[in-house]
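Entry 14. Ran structure prediction on the chain below.
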Amino acid sequence: MRDALVAAAFRLFLERGYEQTTVDDIVALAGVGRRSFFRYFPSKEDVVFPDHERCLADMTAYLAASDDAHEPVRRVCDAARLVLRMYAENPSFSVQRYRLTKKVPGLRAYELSVVWRYERALAEYLRARFAGRADGNLRADVIASAVVAAHNNALRSWLRSDGQGDASATVDHALGYVQSAFAAAPAAAAARESAVGAEGPGSPEDVVVVVARRGAPLWRVVQEIETALARD
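Output, C-alpha cells:
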C-alpha cells in the first residue's frame, strides 16, 4: 500500500503538478482512504521522500555499531554512501524526485531539513569520537558539513545526468577530497595533545622552531612565525 501511494502521488504530480494535487486525489487514485495515507505519511511532502526515514535509521545504526578501530572520517564517509545506495536503488524515481524538488520551493525547504538531519547524525558520531580533544566539537561539525557537501555535489551531478554513469565512482571521488583533507587530522591532534602533556598548550616548555633564509626581510620572518604558531 505504501508503494502504491507513492506511485499514485508521483503520477499525479507529473500530470497535474505538485501544488494542484491533493491528498484526496492521491488516495482516490490509489483506491484507499485518507486514514491509510496518514498511516504511512504525515504529510504530502513526506510522500515525496518516502525512504529517508529508513535511510536515516540505517545510518544511525551503522554509526552506532562503530568502535575505536574505525577511523572516524572514513566511517562517516562510508555512512554517507548509504544515502547514495538508497538513490541508486531506483534511479528513475530518484531523477523524477530531483526534477520535482527543483520546481517546488516547499519541497526544496523540506529536503534541506532532511539533509540537516543526516548532517546532525554524522556530527553527533564525530563529536563522541573527538570528545576531550581541542576544538573537538568544531572539528566534528566541519567534517560532517564537508561530507554532506561532497556527497550532495556528486549526487546532484549524477541526478542531472538523468542517473547515467557510475554514481558510486562519482561519490567516491568527491568523498576522497574529504578523507584526504581530514582523515589524518584526529591522529595528528592526538599526537600534539600527547606531546604537550601536562604542561598544556602554550606552556613555557612549548617550543616552535622557524627556519628562514639569510637576508629574508623581517616581515617575512614574522609571517613565518605567525603561521607556525597558528598551525601549532
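DSSP finds twelve helices and no strands in the chain. Will compare against last week's run tomorrow.
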